[in-house]
Amino acid sequence: DEARKFWLAALKDPSTSPKQQADIAYVLVDNEFKDDAEPVFVRLALNPVLTAKERSDILTELLYIWGPRPEPAQMQWIEKRYVESAEKGKKYWASQISGLGTEDYLISFAERHPESIVISPEMADAYFEALADAGQMRSKADYYIVGARSSGKTDLLRKYAQVAEEKGYKREARNAYSAIAEIQTSDYAAERSSGLMAFDLADYSASKQFLGDYIKSYESSGTNDPQAYVAYFYYGEIMRRDGDLANAKPYYVKTLALM
Questions:
Q1: Quick count: other Cβ atoms within 10 Å of Cβ 60?
Q2: Tens digits of per-residue pLDDT, 223-237?
Q3: Which of 125, 172, 238, 257 is the most interior residue, by most CB within 10 Å?
Q4: 162 in helix, strand or coil?
């Protein structure tokens, strides 16, 4: 193809500026010559002569060329960008990696770079979802519970609990929410979630305790929780199971009022 030969020759010309090289690479992509454009974008992606916006656009194009599941060598290139970046850059690259890596890669990456799931919510989601899909959620429970109790920080444990709940790891979710409620005594949502998970596990005594504590906290604090009605409904259900329908009815009424 004569046009392709022309553009490739222009790329080899020392007088062709980095900006012009990028423009040529875009033309090559538009004409379905992605294999020719890829090494150009790789070379230019970190070129300081280009503006930050130009480099960002090149990275976007490069990820488009590589597709949703880059090859191992391409993932190594991306991971190297993460390793060599300052914190703001690490957050960007971790977010990118969260949507590109395979299940095994995401687990391996996050465990090689544990800070990545702290600085990037997207990576935390991807990591915990990968753990759940790989059947490894249960084996990690104690690690995150102990870590949260030691540090007093519950963000990661909350993310773990949310994914565990979504993926059907009810016992692990209940234990994580319970730990959050113990660590952050003003975390009423964790009390609610603990109670609901306990109900799902048919642990009605624990469910009654957690939901009862939640309702007391909710009513005394005036907190606006759009999910409060769920706690009232299930607390009423526990009372109904205990044969106390008279005391259950006000909770059903409150449920309707809050919906």
A1: 11
A2: 788 999 999 999 999
A3: 172
A4: helix
